[in-house]
């Protein structure tokens, strides 16, 4: 099944109880730019994974690359396969599926990872959604 650019509808309650987006407009623009760059092969279920063709990233796995923060640590997932785990500079343990909430609220990460993993949404379509929904909510700082 090939992916295509689709319109991603925002659930009415997605931003309930989310008062701020921890990312600045500059950081979100950098993320959008990287999603649209064509430099990343879209993968699913892991922030970053290596296969015979190289690396794949979830849309969330592109964020630390865009911000050039933290590090990738190679480790095994729960079923013993090698994956790349993300370690935030302030984090105690590497993460496989989601980023620390200090980077992006978990509710938004869950929504984006669902779009990335379970729909036909491409990085381009996800970038459009981020531009439309997150960029206006981010601070200018």
What does this molecule look like?
The protein is of the alpha+beta class and 141 residues long. The protein has one domain (25-137). The protein has helices at residues 25-36, 59-67, 106-118, 123-134; strands spanning 48-51, 54-57, 71-76, 82-87. Strands 1-2 form a two-stranded antiparallel sheet. A two-stranded antiparallel ribbon has the order 3-4. A hairpin with a 5-residue loop joins strand 3 (71-76) and strand 4. The protein is globular, with a radius of gyration of 14 Å. The mean pLDDT is 85.
What fraction, in percent, of the residue positions are helical? 25-40%
Secondary structure category: alpha+beta
User: From N to C, what is the helix and strand string?
Assistant: HEEHEEHH
Ranges where pLDDT stays below 50 over 5 or more residues in a row are none
Largest sheet: 2 strands, antiparallel
Number of helices: 4
The structural domain count equals 1
Which strand-content bin applies to the residues? 5-15%
Sum up the overall morphology in one term. Answer: globular
Put the structure in a nutshell.
By secondary structure, this protein is an alpha+beta fold. Helix content is 33%, strand content 14%.
Identify the notable features of this structure and list them briefly.
two-stranded antiparallel sheet; alpha+beta; 141 residues; globular
């Amino acid at each position: 099944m090939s992916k295509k650019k689709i319109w991603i509808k925002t659930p009415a309650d997605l931003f309930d109880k989310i008062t701020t987006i921890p990312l600045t407009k500059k950081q979100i623009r950098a993320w959008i730019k990287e999603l649209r760059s064509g430099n990343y092969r879209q993968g699913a279920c892991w922030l970053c994974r290596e296969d015979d063709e190289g690396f794949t990233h979830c849309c969330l796995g592109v964020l630390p690359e865009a911000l050039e923060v933290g590090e990738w640590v190679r480790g095994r997932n729960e079923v013993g396969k090698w994956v790349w785990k993300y370690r935030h500079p302030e984090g105690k343990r590497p993460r496989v599926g989601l980023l620390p909430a200090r980077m992006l609220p978990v509710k938004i990460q869950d929504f984006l990872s669902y779009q990335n993993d379970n729909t036909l949404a491409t990085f381009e379509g996800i970038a459009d959604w981020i531009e439309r929904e997150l960029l206006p909510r981010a601070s200018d700082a």
